[in-house]
Amino acid sequence: MKTILITGGAGFIGSHVVRLFVNKYPGYKIVNLDKLTYAGNLANLIDIENKTNYEFVKGDIVDSEFIQNLFEEKKFDGVIHLAAESHVDRSISNPTEFVFTNVIGTVNLLNAAKHIWNNNFTGKKFYHISTDEVYGSLGEEGIFTEKTAYDPHSPYSASKASSDHFVRAYLDTFGLPSVISNCSNNYGSFQFPEKLVPLFINNIKNNKSLPVYGKGENIRDWLWVEDHAVAIDVIFHEGKIGETYNIGGFNEWKNIDLIRAMCRIMDRKLKRIAGESEKLITYVKDRAGHDLRYAIDATKLKNELGWEPSLQFEEGIEKTIDWYLENEKWMNNVTSGDYQKYYKQQYVKR
Ligand code: NAD
Ligand code: TYD
Q1: CATH topology for 2-188+223-251+290-311?
Q2: Cα–Cα nearest to 156, from 129, 139, 131
Q3: N or C, which end of the chain has less CB nearby within 10 Å?
Q4: DSSP string for residues in 224-262
Q5: In the prediction, which pLDDT does 148 show?
Q6: What pLDDT shows up at residue 179?
């Protein structure tokens, strides 16, 4: 039986990866290590929490001694590392937290894997989950490939870029077998409503204003989270050591067009008069250092490992909106308490 560590498994993408691995691989023991920050929520995993091949461990990847002991105890065969501070706006108000978790936390995991694997690397893999934001911002033309030079602009993307460099440095220096993937923006169920899609679904539902940064002309490339989880499965098993794989849906949307599309779908689902939800759109002060455009070329992943997105965006966004409308209790749970304070700090003065 293989023992696999998944970090950040109580978060948005991590919970989908944990669910997929626990259900698909009864021969693996899946250990989900998560600090349960504001973004981590065990309610994301209720359907698999009692499975015999699943274990949750609460802990902080910044705590090197704890991480070292956990690796000694569990003797992991593989690591899929998703734990991170992940929200750009929070990285603007508190950059240091991003250095601790994203950089130091990643280095702690690399050190523990290096120590426990002790040059015996056969069958071992350290898989680091990264973002397309490390490549910086595109103009109207161009697309990020695996060869695009890193050019991060936000403290979030700078911390992710730094952690990617450490993963590669540990392979080059110590032979630690690793693989990295850089994915575009994800959308789907269980995403914390500070990110655009769940925040705006929740605000439309509650007739609250929709704070569009700047002119709404920034472009993101959107991928359904469950397709990302499948790509992670494929790369974990088939990805070549030392390689980087870009993951994306070839699905670019200007923010304002995406927001208008969500408004139209919500009007229909909530039986509102056409155009009613769009009236909630409010243009607010732009995000500092706001990257204009991200676009991912995922051709390598398709050609070499055969992965492609399963869902068209139109279907994915409908499914996602349905999920948030049907899971009111989940949304109410995560938007109580500290969330209210965050919301005021982030939006009231904008
Ligand atoms: P998320 O914020 O929803 O979840 C992050 C998880 O990490 C949470 O469960 C949190 O409790 C945990 N965590 C945070 N700090 C920790 C610490 N110090 N120790 C242990 N656990 C800690 O993030 P997400 O959107 O699911 O992103 C997961 C990964 O995927 C991140 O590495 C992110 O950079 C990357 N990524 C995200 C996207 C996206 O669109 N969301 C796109 C590409 C890549
Ligand atoms: P976000 O979901 O925070 O993802 P990222 O910044 O990692 O791409 O934001 C997606 C886009 O939506 C980004 O261009 C910023 C914009 N945005 C808004 O216009 N208003 C908002 O309230 C938020 C959260 C994001």
Answers
A1: Rossmann fold (3.40.50)
A2: 131
A3: N
A4: EHHHHHHHHHHHHHHPPTT-EEEE--S-EEEHHHHHHHH
A5: 98
A6: 98
Residue corresponding to tokens 């250990």: 31
| Residues 74 and 31 sit within 8 Å (Cβ to Cβ) | yes
Tokens of residue 127, six digits: 């898989």
DSSP, collapsed to helix, strand or coil, labels residue 172 as helix
- Judged by its nearest atom, the ligand closest to the C-alpha of residue 185 is 1
Delimit the domains of the chain by residue range: 2-188+223-251+290-311
How does pLDDT run across 59-77, given as a tens digit for each residue?
999 999 999 999 999 999 9
Distance of CA 65 to the CA centre of its chain: 26
Active site residues: 132-133, 156
What pLDDT, on a 0 to 100 scale, did the predictor assign at position 266? 98
In the chain, which residues have pLDDT < 50? none
- Cα 204 to Cα 176: distance, rounded to the nearest angstrom: 47
Quote the tokens at residue 39.
């973004």
Ligand 1 centroid distance, CA of 290 (Å): 20
- Kindly give the pairing relationship between strand 219-224 and strand 185-187: parallel
- Pocket flag, ligand 1, residue 80 (CB < 6 Å): no
pLDDT at 350: 72
Give me the pLDDT at residue 16, please: 98
Is the C-beta atom of 152 inside 6 A of ligand 1? no
* DSSP character string of 323-339: HHHH-HHHHHHHTSTHH
Question: Cα(87) to centroid of ligand 1, in Å?
Answer: 9
For residues 57 and 33, the answer to whether their CB atoms sit within 8 Å is yes
Q: Which residue has its alpha carbon closest to ligand 1 atom 5?
A: 11
Candidates 172, 53, 58; CA nearest to 114 is 172
Identity at 298, one-letter amino acid code: A
| Pairing between β-strand 125-131 and β-strand 185-187 as defined by DSSP bridges | unpaired
pLDDT digit string (tens) for 96-145?
Answer: 999 999 999 999 999 999 999 998 999 999 999 999 999 999 999 999 99
Ligand 2 centroid, distance to 270 Cα (angstroms): 24
